[in-house]
Design goal:
This protein is α/β, with parallel strands linked by helices. The protein is built from ten helices and ten strands. It has a six-stranded mixed β-sheet with strand order 6-7-8-3-9-10, with helices on both faces. A four-stranded antiparallel β-sheet has the order 2-1-4-5, with helices on one face. A hairpin with a 2-residue loop joins strand 9 and strand 10. The two termini are 34 Å apart. It binds adenosine-5'-triphosphate and magnesium ion. The site of magnesium ion (MG) has 4 residues, from helix 1.
């Protein structure tokens, strides 16, 4: 088994006097894609925000390789090798694809040849972004926006990518559920929406798979509630409940029984 890249040990976080993380412990090895799962409000985003230094730890330890992250501010954590794609994607709707990427280059002080190579790499990975380079972020489909957000995070050459619910807002699980019933009624707008959602999800899945193939060694911590998506791309999973990990294992252990007990509402 490969070396451990990220270690989170007994991480505790308070928000407004409430204990939100109650001792989160997990690890990600080099080249691994690890899914961090759990129902709404269990602390998945808080875990990622704490990793980025956007939420202070009350106690616990977070290390990336031999670097103690807890001593670093957010910019230094990015320099140390963390890339972050926040929930909701946070792209600028009124700026073009290229402007969205360039803002990240400026923010991180990446200039000249390094900047050009960074952009080239993103456009090679995600050709749709090159095709739509002059399009406004706000008019892209959900799947394309997610590729833009991932591309933007890659510009800092991270060792570990933190992805927060890339399929959110696309809601394939909900659409699939009601979809099966509604499809029978042959309602054209709904059928089209289902098709678009499935297409977007496939597009995101494809983007992550491409990334893993071309960036060997890149590790990914994927926060996600869409079970089949995780089954399709993750190596291992952790399930959280009320601020702590309740079960973990290889992705093959994410059985329907585990989903029912730990992940379903
Ligand atoms: N800014 C905040 N102020 C107050 N409470 C917060 C804040 N951010 C998060 N919380 C609380 O912390 C808990 C964990 O939130 P978090 O966003 O980490 O959950 P999550 O697992 O990412 O949920 P979701 O799947 O809905 O995104 C929730 O109960 C939430 O209400
Ligand atoms: Mg969240």
């Amino acid at each position: 088994m490969s070396e451990v890249l990220l270690t989170v040990s007994s991480a505790e976080v308070d928000i407004d006097g409430s204990r939100i993380l109650r001792g989160v412990t997990l690890e990600v090895r080099h080249g691994e894609l690890v899914a961090l799962m759990g129902r709404n409000g269990v602390g998945k985003t808080t875990t990622l925000r704490a990793l980025m230094g956007l939420r202070p730890l009350r106690s616990g330890v977070m290390t990336l390789g031999s670097t103690d992250l807890t001593k670093l501010d957010t910019a230094s954590r990015a320099r140390a090798g963390l890339g972050y794609v926040p929930q909701g994607r946070d792209i600028f709707p009124h700026l073009t694809v290229e402007e969205n990427l360039r803002i990240s280059l400026v923010t991180h002080g990446i200039k000249g040849a390094a900047a050009r190579e960074g952009l080239d790499e993103v456009y090679t990975l995600f050709p749709i972004l090159k095709q739509f380079v002059a399009r406004k972020g706000g008019v892209l489909s959900g799947g394309q926006q997610q590729q833009l957000a991932i591309g933007r995070a890659l510009l800092t050459q991270p060792k570990l990518l933190l992805l927060d619910e890339p399929t959110e807002g696309i809601q394939p699980s909900i659409i699939e559920e009601i979809g099966d019933t509604l499809k029978k009624l042959k309602s054209p707008p709904v059928a089209a929406a289902i098709e678009q959602a499935q297409h977007d999800t496939e597009e995101i899945k494809g983007a992550i798979k491409t990334l893993r193939r071309t960036r060997a060694g890149l590790s990914i911590l994927l926060v996600e509630q869409y079970v089949d998506f995780c089954r399709a791309i993750a190596d291992r999973f952790y399930a959280m409940d009320r601020g702590a990990v309740t079960i973990s294992g290889p992705i093959a252990d994410l059985t329907d029984e585990v989903v029912k007990e730990h992940l379903q509402v």
